[in-house]
Each structure stands twice: as structure tokens, then as C-alpha cells.
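Example complex used in Figure S2.
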Amino acid sequence: MACEQVFIQQLRERGFRLTPQREIILSVLHEVEGLVTAEEIHRRVQRISTTIDISTVYRTLELLEELDLVSCVDTSEAQRRYELLGIHGPHLHLVCQACGRVIAAELEIARDFDERLRTGYGFQPALDHLSIPGLCSTCAASGASPTQGRGADGVLG
Amino acid sequence: MACEQVFIQQLRERGFRLTPQREIILSVLHEVEGLVTAEEIHRRVQRISTTIDISTVYRTLELLEELDLVSCVDTSEAQRRYELLGIHGPHLHLVCQACGRVIAAELEIARDFDERLRTGYGFQPALDHLSIPGLCSTCAASGASPTQGRGADGVLG
DNA sequence: CTAAATGCAAATATTTTGCAGGTTA
DNA sequence: TAACCTGCAAAATATTTGCATTTAG
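Predicted assembly (314 residues):
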């Protein structure tokens, strides 16, 4: 089922309403790639309808999160970032501390790690809800350094 | 070398000054365990000297971060959390989304994961600078659910 | 004595909330 | 038409900054 259909169905089921604002915000989420801030969404939304307020964007994002259509992650920046789920399914986010680029990575590569957290610590990690700071290959090659944090100096030896 | 000695030495080297406020803040960081917010630090600092302002706490934390004596992580809460480095060395933080508890975990368990990020994506992760959301064993057992986010439903199957 | 640090207050920045009026089902 | 949703404005929260004064070296 397409994302919009899920959205409409879930709205109906829960007694919520389909408004033009919500449609526009959902469509904007479709056209961006990677993680975006509420402000970025708002800017794009305003190209379509200039009167839509950022509070409506926040409220819609909150709603979409509740319906599991959108995921919110805390990067190390000031602003939260959001993204549409369900196209590629859940995945990890690698966030470059030098250039800010976000790289999607398969959750598979964290399988051992996930397992060890569960067996060794009784902890059930929500890895799909996480962004990993570090340096992307380009920035690492060019010798760029993180704009914040302690960097990626290979603490594991 | 003790943490305070490193601090004093680094301050001298860089032309910074050792003030009573800075000593108090550093001592408070020693006595707390796990990740603490600037506000929590400030509250404890004020038990010792009531006039110290929270802006001084922020400025000192920033300085300590620069000297690599303190690490700052973004949890999924609103406030940043800080902790003293160098006692146990760098480690991972497991943050329970239900009760807020922070569990320290060995970096070792992320070795495979780290390796795969490097070889598979050319990404150099800063895992010691990261907190992992999820559910702690107690909360998982009691059926508690995350106060935010998508939870820990085992997306890896 | 001088540059650096502090406390205070005000500014920023992001996100949330109250409410009157408009809209969906 | 009745509950829901929106835009606006203001509030709340966390962090940063400007500045006069104090203080460490």
C-alpha cells in the first residue's frame, strides 16, 4: 500500500482528518532525501502554500511519528531531524560531523552489535532510531575535522 | 596523572586561568556518575557556592570539552548531557527510553560494527560519542514502553 | 597591571501551547 | 454541526552572548 493510502487510512481509523496542509507536508517528505529538519520541511512547504505555519509542521510531524510513518532522530546538531519511513524500511544513519552529509546504512551490519547489547546487557536497542556521528570517506580523505565532538580517531584501536 | 593535574596543566599551557568556579565544577563532575545535564551540575555546584551562574557552568563545560576532559552527548531528551572522561576511558551509553537510566557499555562489543562501517561505507564512526536509545532490561521486563520514538521491537528480526 | 573570567541580564533558537476562527466528515 | 485543525502569537526551554566588574597570574 502506498504511503499516502496508509496515512489516510490511519487518520480515518483514529478519527483524525485529512487536510490540505497534511497532504502537502507528506508530499514534501516524499520529495526530500535523507533526514530533514522541521525548518527545511517548512521552507519547502511554503513554496506550495505560503500561509502554512511551522507549528502545523511540528504538529503534523508529531502525528506522522505516532502513525509510524515518520522517524525522528537527534543528531548532534541543535535541531531534530525527520524522515519518512517505509520506503526503504528502517536503516541506520551515518552523520558526517565535518560536512553534515547523512548516509543510509543497512541495519544488517549492526546485527552482532545488537545481539551483544541484548545478551550482554539485557538492553533492547532501537538502532533504527539512531544516528551515528563520525567522518564520511570524503572528509576523512581530505583530512577534515569534526565541527564538534571528539572526532573519529578510532578509539577501538 | 590525576584529572585535576591534567586540567591545571592544560589551562596553563593555553593561557587559561584556574578559578574557584572551575575547580568546583570539575569536582562536581567527579562526584556524579553517568551522564549529567548542565542544570544538574549547576544545582550541585550551588550547594558549594550559591553565586555561581549557569552560564559559567556552560562555559566551563565547553572549555573542558575542548581539553578532552569532558564528553558531551545528545540523548533523545531536550537537554545535552555531559560526563567526565578518563576515569573509565571512552565507552558506549545505553539510554533507556522508558526510565531514562544510562548504562555504560564496553566499546569492545561494537568492534565488528565499527569495522563494517569502516570497510563497507568508508565511514569512521565516533562511537564513544554516541548514546544508544532502547529499553533497559527492567523496563523491557515490566512491559514499559518508550516515552518517545519507535521503541525497541527488534527491527533486526 | 592586564588579560581573562565571572555574574547578571538579555538575546537566541527551537519547539510547544492557548485560543479564536475556519474546515472536515 | 460538532469535533477537529489551523494560523497566529505568546510561552516554555535550553543555551549563548554582551557587558561592567572582579580576579588570577
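The radius of gyration of chain A is 18 Å. The first strand of chain A starts at residue 36 and ends at 37.
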